[in-house]
Every structure is written in structure tokens, then in C-alpha cells.
Amino acid sequence: QVQLVESGGGLVQAGGSLRLSCAASGRAFSEYVMGWFRQDPGKERDFVASISSTATRSYAGSVRGRFTISRDNAKNTVYLLMNSLKPEDTAVYYCAARGTSSRGYDYWGQGTQVTVSS
Asked: Which regions of 40-111 does DSSP assign to beta strands (E)?
């Protein structure tokens, strides 16, 4: 069982930056694929970025070049550094964990709100 707690959301002006953190409890954090997703009210949850146990990264096209995902296995934490934020980045951001043999993400955090003002 893995518990995920996000932090770092808030209100920022367009062009600004935020860093989200996701602290994980439980064993074998380093073996999980960690991901970030976001969701607007009334819309589906969209993939933002992921990082594998070997630090292979993947990004959605809309954030590539602006967002950076990283992990610190010693701290059981995954980060999402968001630069050059746009109003369309406004959403609730969720952290998720996926076992290496899983097809989908098994564990989810409660989400943290990011609001980008124009």
C-alpha cells in the first residue's frame, strides 16, 4: 500500500513558476513509476508527466519544455517543476504511483490546486 500526499500548489501569475511535491509512504518507492496528472472541473483527468524507476521521463506535449519531473528516492518524493505557467495550466494536479507490472496507476493522492492568473 502506498499513500501519496501532494503539496506546493497555489496561485501564480502567468509566466511564473511553481514546484509541486508528492511525498510517498510505504515500501519500495524507488520501484514505482510515478506520474503527475491534472484535471479541470467537468473534464477528464489528463496525463502530465511520468518518471520511471530508472529516471526515464515522459511528458505531455502541452508541457514539454516547460515542466520537469524528478524524484528523490532517498526522500520518497517526486517533484514537478512548472515554469512559464499559462492560464490553461490551471487545474487540480494529482500524483500517482504505478507498479512495474501494473497496466494503470494503482495509487493516487488527493490533489493540489494550481491556479494561473492572466
From this structure: 46-51, 57-59, 67-72, 77-82, 91-98, 107-108
Q: What are φ and ψ of residue 117, in 5° steps?
A: -90, 145
Strands (DSSP E) found in the chain: 3-7, 10-13, 18-25, 33-39, 46-51, 57-59, 67-72, 77-82, 91-98, 107-108, 112-117
C-alpha cell of 46?
Answer: 489528463
118 residues of the chain, pLDDT tens digit each: 899 999 999 999 999 999 999 999 987 899 999 999 999 988 999 999 999 999 999 999 999 999 999 999 999 999 999 999 999 999 999 999 999 888 899 999 999 999 999 9
- The residue type of 10 is G
β pairing state of 67-72 and 77-82: antiparallel
